[in-house]
Amino acid sequence: MSFLWLGCVAGSLLLVGLAVIPPWLPEATRWLLMQAFAPLCHQIPARSPTIDGVHLAVCDRCIGIYSGLAGGVVLAAALRATAVPIVKHLQHVRTLSWDRVLSVLRLALVGVLIPLAIDWLGPFVAEWTSLSGWTNSVESRFATGLLLGVVAGLLLIVVIANSRARTRAHPNEDVSSSEGTSTRRTTDADV
């Protein structure tokens, strides 16, 4: 497994770890961590999980998204040994390409946004219509976030793998930077 894969797995697990660690931190450190997550999450107390009465750094949906992102990245890393040879074989017979996999995952991402949007909008719609009683729950917020996170994690890995595959296919190709200079693309030997 390359450093890039290990970095993606470690980074996604670190994000989940940072989101759930506040109950075990000293007050000042907890406050700093909560402030770091504040631009990413509303942190509404009624919608945020607690451990021993201390809120996590993110809400139910965000902890689902971060957990799903880590799960998707770990799943992709675990399946890498079997998935890459299958994709390469299918590319050889011209029935599947990285671009096709990327397109399917993009559609899946849009698809998982639908239940998330319904769960998020449901209480507002119920308030404006005769659908009183509609509400979302801790479980629905976590589950819709988890779905989004898993697909986003898989999509992230496919984008990285696709980028690396294209780089390997043309290792000495120069890439122009915004200043007009050219730089050589990074290869596996560089990583």
TrEMBL record:
The keyword Metal-binding does not apply. It holds the Pfam family DUF2085. It comes from the Bacteria. Keywords: Membrane, Transmembrane, Transmembrane helix. It comes from Longibacter salinarum. This is DUF2085 domain-containing protein. Residues 170-191 are annotated as: Disordered. The chain crosses the membrane at residues 63-83, 104-122, 142-161. InterPro entries: DUF2085_TM. The keyword Transmembrane helix applies.
